[in-house]
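Much of our argument rests on the idea that a fold can be written as discrete symbols. Part of our work consisted of pairing the sequence of a single chain with a tokenised description of its backbone. We regard such an encoding as a compact summary of how the chain folds. The amino acid sequence and the backbone structure tokens for this protein are reproduced below.
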Amino acid sequence: MNTNLRNLALAALATGATLAADSRETVLDRKVYIEDGIAELPAVPPLCDTLKLDKRRVQVGDCSLYCETEGSGPALVLINGGPGGTHHGFHPHFGRAAEFATVVYYDQRGCGQSDYARGTGYTVDQAVDDLDHLREALKLERWVVVGWSYGGVLAQTYTVKYPERVAGLALAGSSEDAMRLALEPSRQYGFISAAEQKKIAEVQRQPGLSMAQSVFNAHLNGDWKRQNFYRPSREELARGALYGWKHAPGFRSSIGRDLARIDLRGLFQGCPIPVLLMEGSYDLTWGADKPGKLAACFPGSRLVMFERAAHAPFADEPEKFFATLREFMQALPAKTAGVEKWREQIAARQAEKRNSPEHLVESSGWGRKSAAKIAARYEADWLNQVTDRSAFLKLGFALYDAKRYEDALAVFQKMEQVVTGQAGVALVWQGHMLDLLGRREEAIAAYKKASVLSFGAQHSQFRLLVTGDYAKQRLQTPFTRVENKDND
């Protein structure tokens, strides 16, 4: 089942894990390393070339997906992160899972070695349908779905749409986007020194660098700390830059827009499918409150924390991770009872949501046409029904587009009160509305409160980057209206 090369790779991985606590640098060490100039990107082959894998292309409608399989036993499919990542981040770690499962690796449509075919447009629903077509092509009746990072959204959405095909749902460092959680701010820059952040910014501004060169050099100069517990080797960083991040033009922006309409809140109530959540204590992508709040969205799930792990617990604590995954899979029932009843509950909840103001807002776009529709239907009592960050922003922006500045101000004031970690953005937009209403002293007070906070938000439709420094600029110069550049 396993080749000598794969065994050697896994042995090296295990040795590194054993020595890690004594010899490998971790994010907790807070060591500062700045590379002189721009480093050359090492020429390293993808790990796929060194492993014995069944490699093929699978046709899923109008698109051909790149796929690899290894191992034997019950099937599990790995859904990588991003949006825009590839399957490479799972190598060689999931070779351990091949000892107790048939492991399916694949690249999503528009990513890695799969076709860059837009189909109906790069969306979560299309990616979910592609995944089920892959299952059919591989002649698998059911499988365990493992979602990592953004892949967790696809895994959750797939489970809701095709529950009869899911034997178990495992989420590793999963995105919480679909659950619209109010979380503490990200910790991802808390361990990167000012000198490293300055160097990273210089790298990202350097003209003439490919994406791989830019990613490699940024991580070499401290950016690795955002999502890694142990400092990766230069070769590991090079592999990640060369093969782990590859996608079609427009893929990320298209998926990003589509994510705003994915709302799975409450849908896992009564879910009969076993759910396992695995989280690194030092996954700095989110605040420390994320694991518990995400677990609460999956009643009856099991949450396992990895104390010396970051965004990829399968890489940082492989022994514990794969023992946990093996135990989870071995305990799965041969057939899951109650799936049809749960499907009916999902349909009822989705129908209820479709009639809510929040759904109207969240299912709309960010451009001028959508803004006009939202503003035309807006009623003041919507403020008591909206809870999500993106819904508040979209609603406030729609009223701003319609020049209803008093109503927009009320939205941003409510957003400051309700949405955790978004006070800075809400305060800046309060200042904007107050400036446009001619209430300059009140606007300055809002900007002052925002200027001492750490935050950042890109509002591409207005071509605005809103940060604490931006708030300081508005203390000197009042905001003047900018128009929505997007038409939907």
User: Anything to note?
Assistant: The chain has two domains: 4-186+250-343, 357-476. The longest helix spans residues 4-23. The chain has 18 helices and ten strands. The beta strands are 54-60, 63-71, 75-79, 102-106, 143-148, 166-172, 275-280, 302-306, 456-459, 464-467.
